[in-house]
Amino acid sequence: MKTIAIYGAGPALGLAVARRFGGEGFRVALVARRREALDAMVGALSADGLEAAGFQADIADPAEALRAADEIEDRFGAIDVLEHSPTPAGPSVSPLDIDTRTAAAVLDLYVLTPIALVNRLLPGMRERGDGALLFAMGAAAKYPTGRYAAPSVALPGLRGYIHTLNAAARDSGVYAGALLIGALIEGSPAHRESQARTGGGAATPVIAPSDLADRLWNLAADRDRVEDVIEPVFSRPGPTTPATDH
């Protein structure tokens, strides 16, 4: 039986990815900061008849992320699929207010932790001749914007890394892919905050987490493209409204 490790697991996208891959026979390892949230998600998955366990770690710290990987492999054996989809680090800031502390925080979360995990998992995947490294992120990876200035420092670098990583690793049977999300994820903290601000109105597009989980599954299964992009409304012709970062 294969194992997926979901880093940054939450009750919206993370849980949907767990159900999608769990439904395909994967054991599920959830990694997040809060034990209560992990226990709730594991309980929900167990009620669905899926094998799952939670591992507590702050994935903004590469060392903690690596410790969680060790614990997952002690419990389940080799990690076959990595899915990295953290929530944004800290409040939104203006480009004029970004300092080295802010930059370091987003680089740790969105770049250094992914690189650390790839370095940890890739050798085993290459030796086995199979594996998938999946990254879900905001559309700021492709369309940097002042509204999401801090993620715009880091996500384009992560996106470039994924493209070059896939090109280098694919001949050994390992796939790297990105899902760029230019919409609010239904049920996510950002979606709830938007509803509170707008009184429930739809100021930006909303997408179901199950749809995103299907897209991630298809990336890993088909391996025919490096990324899938849900275009933000400000990149489309016609009236524009900036979409939220994931």
Largest sheet: 7 strands, parallel
Write the element-wise H/E pattern from the N-terminal end onward: EHEHEHEHEHEEHEHE
Calculate the mean pLDDT score and round it. 90
Q: Please give the CATH class.
A: Alpha Beta
CATH architecture field: 3-Layer(aba) Sandwich
Individual helix count:
7
What is the general shape? Answer: globular
Low-confidence stretches: 236-246
Strand order of the largest sheet: 3-2-1-4-5-6-9
Counting structural domains, the number is: 1
Q: CATH topology, what is it called?
A: Rossmann fold
Distance between the termini: 30 Å
Main traits of this protein?
single chain, two-stranded parallel sheet, 7-stranded parallel β-sheet, 246 residues, 7 helices, Rossmann fold, alpha/beta, 9 strands
How would you concisely characterize the structure shown here?
With 246 residues, the chain is α/β, with parallel strands linked by helices. It is built from seven helices and nine strands, in the order βαβαβαβαβαββαβαβ.
Give a verbal description of the structure.
By secondary structure, the chain is of the alpha/beta class. The chain has one domain: NAD(P)-binding Rossmann-like Domain (Rossmann fold). Helix content is 46%, strand content 18%. The protein contains 7 helices and 9 strands, in the order βαβαβαβαβαββαβαβ. Strands 3-2-1-4-5-6-9 form a 7-stranded parallel beta sheet, sandwiched between helices. A two-stranded parallel ribbon has the order 7-8. β7, α6 and β8 form a beta-alpha-beta unit. α1 packs across α7, α3 runs parallel beside α4 and α4 runs parallel beside α5. The two termini are 30 Å apart. The C terminus is likely disordered.
